[in-house]
Amino acid sequence: MVIGLPNHMETELKLGCADESVWDKIMTAEALASVTVSGSENTQQLEARYFDTPSHALQKAQLAYRLRRE
Fold first, then answer.
1. φ/ψ of residue 51, rounded to 5
2. Whole-angstrom Cα distance, residue 47 to residue 70?
3. pLDDT tens digits, residue range 15-52?
């Protein structure tokens, strides 16, 4: 049990784009037109660091250990 942290599970969807020129097309796609974002739009600078074992055990198990500063 971790004290001081809320009891919740975070589900994160990560999308990657191999060709950066495609980004604008993705963000203006008709399929996304009906998607609403809750809250106000803002910009944040985030710092994230990922950790794994020398043998990449977490990656092989499809897990990630990330520390992120918002």
1. -130, 150
2. 7
3. 667 787 887 787 788 877 777 666 666 677 778 888 99
